[in-house]
Write the structure tokens for this entry.
Amino acid sequence: MTGTYRVRRGDVAESRNAVHFTFDGKSYQGLAGDTLASALIANGVHLVGRSFKYHRPRGFVSAGSEEPNALVGVGATQSRYTPNLLATQVEIYDGLVAESQNRWPSLETDAGFLNEYFSAFLPAGFYYKTFMWPRTAWKKLYEPVIRRMAGLGKAPAEPDADRYTQVFAHCDVLIVGAGPAGLAAALEASNSDATVILCDEQAEMGGSLLSDRSASIDGMQAADWARAALDELRKRPNVKLMSRTTAFGWYPHNFVGLNERVTDHLSNPATNQPRERLWQVRAKEVVLAAGAIERPLVFTDNDRPGIMLAGAARTYVNRYGVVPGKQVVVFTACDSAYRAALDLKAAGARIQVIVDLRKSVSGYWVDKARAEGIKVRSDSIVRGTSGWLRVKSAQISNAQGGDAETVACDLILMSGGFTPSVHLFSQSRGKLSYSEELRAYVPGESVERERSVGACKGLFALESVIESGAKGGRDAAAKAGFPPHGERSYAVSAQSVGADAFIGSVMTDHQAEKRAWVDFQNDVTAKDVRLATREGFRSIEHVKRYTTTGMATDQGKLSNMNALGVVSKQIDVAVPKVGLTTFRPPYTPTTFGSFAGQSRGDLFDPVRKTSIHAWAEAQGARFEDVGVWKRAWYFPQVGEDMHAAVARECKATRESVGIFDASTLGKIEIVGKDAAEFMNRMYTNAWTKLEPGRLRYGVMLREDGFIMDDGVVGRMATDRFHVTTTTGGAARVLSMMEDYLQTEWPDLEVWLTSTTEQWSVIALQGPNARKVLEPLVDGIDLSADAMPHMSVREGRICGVPTRLFRVSFTGELGFEVNVPAGYGRAVWEAIFAAGKPYGITPYGTETMHVLRAEKGYIIVGQETDGTVTPDDAGLGWAVGKAKRDFVGKRSLSRPALVREDRKQLVGLLTTDPKVVLEEGAQIVLDPTHPIPVPMIGHITSSYWSATLNRSIALALVRGGRSRMGEELSIPMPDGVIKAKVVDSILFDPKGERLNA
Amino acid sequence: MLLINCPYCGPRPEAEFANGGQAHIARPADPMSLTDDEWAAYLYMRDNTKGLHHERWRHANGCGRFFNASRDTTTDVIKRTYRMGERPEAEHQGAKP
Amino acid sequence: MQKFSALSLLRAGLTGHAGWQRQWRSPEPKSGYDVIIVGGGGHGLATAYYLASRYGVKNVAVLEKGWIGGGNTGRNTTIIRSNYLFDESAGIYEHALKLWEGLSQELNYNVMYSPRGVLMLAHNIHDVQSFKRHVHANRLNGIDNEWLSPEECKEFCPPLNVGGSMRYPILGGALQRRGGTARHDAVAWGYARAADALGVDIIENCEVTGIRRAPTGEVVGVDTTRGSINAKRIGVVAAGNTSTVMNMAGVRLPLESFPLQALVSEPVKPIFPCVVMSNTIHAYISQSDKGEMVIGAGTDVYTSYTQRGGLHIVNHTLDAICELVPAFRRLRMLRNWGGIVDVTPDRSPIVAKTPVSGLYVNCGWGTGGFKATPGSGEVFASTIAKDEPNKINAPFTIERFRDGAVIDEAAAAAVAH
């Protein structure tokens, strides 16, 4: 046997392989199919953790995902280390390394336990009442100490070595939970043409049936029936079974998030396997069969290792074949604990006594327990326990008080009935209603297309659970449009355990000063909850936030109803009036990595590259991110830094010819008989008189009058415009155009097409640009007379069709060669080769910025920031004064937009030409003014100009155009820089070069 | 991730759509004739309805068309989608003038 | 007011904590008040507190339809900073930050203001330019904000993925050391307790259903689910529900309410020393005193009052978090929730008089209202008490939208070229 507490599992003949693992450095042996919890229990280990606040020793309370105590860190390496996993959920494998958390130096001897001695001074919310003096002590002294005490496990120290993936799925019927109700629902729903997904958080499907030795269905033992049903479902092509898959969240319109754990249970996962998959399922209909969670009883010192839920003990015995204790006291408010006691007894444990809170007890299970010789004490409570690292005894008395009897034990089972798991129902915005009988909330009216079945609906008798599951499955398939082909019947033989339940604290009034835990992990006692209500925290949300009950990693699965019960009794208000805290996703903690999925590194966002990108890369270009685009930033040669490279690129372009990849510019083709009218309405400029074959610089405003985008526009024909936009603005511009076209002016005959990806754009700039291009071009006369600045011609270049723009963003004679993107690289290389004799130089965005700044050309997003009008930017000339209307026109006459003292774009030259201003630096009139210093503007662009052999800058300055020649101050941390206001055009103001 | 029924393409996930804000706000025919207050009302004032709300969506990553949806902002349930130029159904018009 | 201190806690501990009183009363509404504040969130409670403590208006009620602090006050990621670009915003947020610095002592309630530093990351050249513009403007406005190189970012916040293979690498950051976090619930409770002690009636479970006006137009009171209450002045501080309340007085506002989500991880031992924000990749993260990673997500694209949002928004947020700190991929989300944020066209607040005499509004704080709580309450109290805006909130009018005098921080920071 592997461990002294091992018993034969159920009635199943078994052969389970031995599995070796370590916990806190010690080696243990378990059996295949064990959880870490069942394997440790098999070895007699119950002490697995320490509580959050008092660091009290803690053991297993549950056998499932509601576990509040048994949190462990798992992983042999930091890159695969996961904190806060539930030992009740971790499946063991050979080589598993697990450790306890939140203890120092060891689990048995934890220094944090000092808090326990001061617990009288650490009631709920104590930290709001102290640690206030002196002012800085909170951050410097108290908070660091509190932080060190708080927290549970340790975050992994190294990047995660695993991968995660995401799947979108559609199905007709999604069934959450594969217990009796879910299995019946799946059998019925899939007996149709509906596609069905059945998911369950556990490794093995079957839910409570796997722990049931007494019931039978269709003549089979419950667990066998479950396996047979699963075999049948597996054969159906329309069914997908997903174990280890938690439906963690409900999102609007029947969209359910599932988390599938793929490799965590494997010793040697295949390298191509993701660790987890996030399934985003759109289901036509959903069946919620999420089951119910057993409720602890709130009694004095109910938190010691060895005190667990009765149903959990039953699961350990029947499903895993381990007995959690040999001397057992049972404390219950319902019949189901009797069933657990009988199963433990059958496994060889001694049941010392069943202590029943109920005044009188009777019925099948009580009779059976008595018949087996188990002592039953009704109208009684466990009023205290002893034992430090493991429970040793229970003190038992009448429910109203009186003398206590001490009974030795190594296990106390408790059951306060069951709480339906209404989490997903509530997340779907279904209305909950309170059932006085069950002392729990159950699903009421639905909002989305779902139905609850079985225990999560408040049904606990196996027969009705299966019946409701079957009915729900049929209903879901039919509502999804797939009436089932038939109906089957289920012969269920099971004794009901009724639906008795208890909420709140069982303590007598004399015990008010004792501590009875409501929330185990967060160390919230009934006393804390009562204190909160006395201090005026009466909404259950306030109680939760003040005491932290329900805020632990189980999110109140065990504690919420008992907290409600305590509050209800304390303030004498019925439970439904006290309220209920909101259910939020995720149902159980869900890995960040699964939400992020493949989105990491280069896959975080798409990378857009031009067709010329690889050429630039091969030339050693450095790139910058502009939106999702990669743009060549500068082309350093050996030994050059950015400054040197840019100076060289600028010089080459001004003196001979430079070549620049402008393909990222947005492009929109605007076509139709009303195209010019549409342009008139969208842009500030007038377009009617622009002749085909001409270009114009266009400015586009938002309706609020501020500059949104700009770009050069070519009129290709009377009914056709080739519009360019900024790199980052392309999508915004097109969608704004579509908005106006479709919703305001549907009468206009205009079509808009994004052509950004269709054209490669090669800018050739410099005095020799024409000479380089001429030999390559067919059918276009490039001479200054035939093709003046701001014109466009169609023809061929290198045999490829082109729209050739004569345009300049540098102030030099320049062309922009548009060719179909597939030819971009070839044409670029051909031009580059043709330019060799002229020393053609590739340049990047930084040089482009410098050259345009020398000419005073703005960049939207740099000179403008969403608060700049055309007049502010010196673009008043581009606003068609005669036009009746265009987008943004009306806003331009609002009072704040016509003020004289608006910030206006000017040039700035520093007194010391060697000093380059910092972009973003603020401009003031009086640098000696005490703080706050009134600021009149800021530097928008600033560069070293190799051309002018000095620094240059553009700035937005209050009333700037009336300050020409004025000396302004730019206060920097290390001194004040002086600069003179000048015109924004600093180079070739007459434009002789670009008209050459 | 809402499920939105494009009147032209059928039901598609929200990821394919761009929201266009409150519907049935027509751009004034002659903005220059408006007072600053009237213009600001067009530009900025919104019903921000708690309840049945008529809004515009564009099937941006699909057919590209704008359309309207009547959605309850207290449940996110979409009662109906309809084409540009159509009015909300009579029983849905009570929510706003 | 019962004094809170280490000593009082010690004494109470010896007597089983039997002596603690209610932190605020639960009074029945009186027939009338000088001022009614609609909305018992942090801003509303702060307004009431400052009305009573600084402006001598003590006959005040705060009406809350649910439980105090139950809206965005209790749902936000508690980031506090004041390093805004424009003078107007810097003025109001710095006013708030100065109040934060002494708030625990002023209220005798530990709101756990923790100036651990707010680091805003730059991921492209435009970000760098924009943040440097902020740093320079802040310096001249007397607000601390400094530029850190990528290496300095890493030193200040070691878990950050600096120099790793990020799609948008960290190019530096702007750090405000006085920025940090506070305990959100404690802010609501602390103001409530202090206001209550000055005589303010805090009335929970009291929903305003109508605003009553005299024939001459001025407000005279409110109708509520607990009856009609007279009021000489009414201040509406209802965040996401502001449009609904203001409609009752026939006032339309330039507001839309969007879902905003946040989430926390399971608690882990201290590892993340400060607040990190990245507007470019949409990541906002800090670690709470309890050990949870507190993470802010983005807004959904549609208006909604459901206090929940889409899963894809959460996915996107965690993409970014896992990029910033790849080791956090194995942490697990414990809880994800939504709030309703009221957003104006320029994403700056409105703290102002309204066209209706006696009616004042404080709204439009969008995704960033928590940090402003004390400042917002203080200037709103001043505005109500004096029937004219304070110098600090004077720019935050409704009329700025008519006039075009918008305060558009987001546009100034977020335009890409």
About this structure: The CA atoms of residues 383 and 395 of chain A lie 6 Å apart. The interface with chain B takes residues 251-255, 280, 282, 429, 447, 703-704, 735, 738-740, 742-744, 746, 884-885, 889-891, 893-895 of chain A (CB under 8 Å).
